[in-house]
Design brief:
The chain is built from three helices and seven strands; from the N terminus they run αβββααββββ. The protein is α+β, with helices and mostly antiparallel strands and 151 residues long.
Length: 151
Amino acid sequence: MPNVVGKTLAEATQILRAAGFHDPPREDGSAICYDVDVPPETISCQDRAAGTSVRTFHELAVRVQHAPRHGTGLTTEDLGTLMGMTVADAKLALARMGFEGVIEVGTTAAFVSGCKLDTICGFEPQATFAHDPGRLLKLYVNPRASFSTPE
């Protein structure tokens, strides 16, 4: 698998095709990783590590680091990049996106399958203003299982 981190989707498509892969990379949210140090609109991670041996029909899922698109707001797509991050990393990413509001962390009402413990599984509202110091953004993580034993 070629390394496409730091490349645009168009560049990654060319690299994959040159290596004999049939499909372009797909950005569908299944690549649960991030790297806020790549330039906006470039791939921040891929679901198969560079150098991994895979067949050329394998599809590569990627995550693209998007810059906030609306100057003073964060879109659902912007906030969606927080999914799978730890709370600490999500707070850092929000600061880098320019969010100046209040961040509240809670647990999901029910366990979210496919979301690891202590990582972001959801958020509300779906979009928000970035530069409003009073704006509340709620981040949700899976609840920890609790067990009780009979005495």
